[in-house]
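Q: Structure tokens for this one, please.
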Amino acid sequence: MSFLLQYAIAYVKEESGLEKHIMRYPQIFATKAIENKLNENIKKGIIWHTQGSGKTALAYYNVKHLTDYYQNKGIIPKFYFIVDRLDLLIQAAKEFKARGLVVHEIDSRDAFARDIKATKVIHNNSGKAEITVVNIQKFQDDPNVIQNTDYQLNIQRVFFLDEVHRSYNPKGSFLANLEQSDKNSVKIGLTGTPLLGQEYNSKTLFGNYIHKYYYNASIKDGYTLRLIREEIETSYKLTLQQALEEIEILKGNADKTDVYAHHKFVEPMLDYIVKDFEQARIAMNDNSIGGMVVKEYMNEFYGRTA
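A: Here is the predicted structure, written as tokens:
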């Protein structure tokens, strides 16, 4: 009960006013699982929580919890939240600020280099808990930008790496640089869809799973809507197949990513999505139905969510 009272409550500033949020049970279990791993001196791993389950909120709760965890050991933690897109940086910063965290944003590679090497933990004078939000594009291609040889034994850097199924190429420099910046750092990967292949595997890059919360459990709990997978109409399948063949002829042995991003493929795909969405609203007699397009690797299906 003391854990819940101390760490599981957040007052969030929304447009409608101040809201009281309580940790969801998977967030509680994940927080305790992180603590157990740290007690075993395991400093990296993956939180596999389905999309929409509140991974940014989980990072916020752990800033609160891990601050006390480390301070009880005479160590001062320094928190980072790393994203791979500008829109996610803006979104994460907004969510952290709404929950009362001071957010420090990195706007250049040089600024991150200075920050990672700094011995101070926070950038504000209020003494409030703080997290630094940074985009990996600021430093992923520079082999020297975050290397730090000045290890402070009383500072523990904690990195939350958002969406670790994307943009973290083991052949690139970012992961190596992050490891070199502080070999003693804690690295917690967050993902709803970890990579499970032979060439790219999230566990190989970021360690074993710390905690899992699957899509079906989230649906049962009412946090996530069930997705409906539908086959594309035959006429559009033929159109898309012809587009792929034309692109292959035009571009030769093109990379799959370039092929699926080509306007000859994207335009008929978009036409189908818009038409199918319009028909769904007519069939269900409900103009309030919303939609979401999710693309990891382009597959020949389109799902609607109500």
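A few notes: Residues 297-306 have pLDDT under 50 and may be disordered. The two ends are 37 Å apart (CA to CA).
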